[in-house]
Design goal:
With about 60 residues, this protein is mainly alpha-helical. The chain has one domain. The protein has 3 helices and no strands. The longest helix has 22 residues. The protein is elongated, with a radius of gyration of 17 Å. It starts with a helix and ends in an 8-residue tail after the last helix.
Length: about 60
């Protein structure tokens, strides 16, 4: 069995923000998808203002 305490300790040592992770896991999958979509829209808007050519993957 995996020792959860050691996993938590290791995550903190690596600088993982467990509070942010917990906060995001409280969201529904749909809320997380909407949050992701909004971030992508903001990134694309900034890139457009900076004159960065669109990426073919988007």
């Amino acid at each position: 069995m995996i020792d959860r305490v050691s996993i938590t300790d290791r995550a903190l040592e690596l600088g993982i923000d467990l509070g942010l992770l917990d906060e995001n896991l409280r969201l529904t999958p749909l809320e997380r998808m909407r949050q992701h979509d909004e971030c992508v829209r903001q990134i694309l808007a900034v890139q457009e203002r900076l004159g960065v050519p669109p990426d073919d993957a988007t």
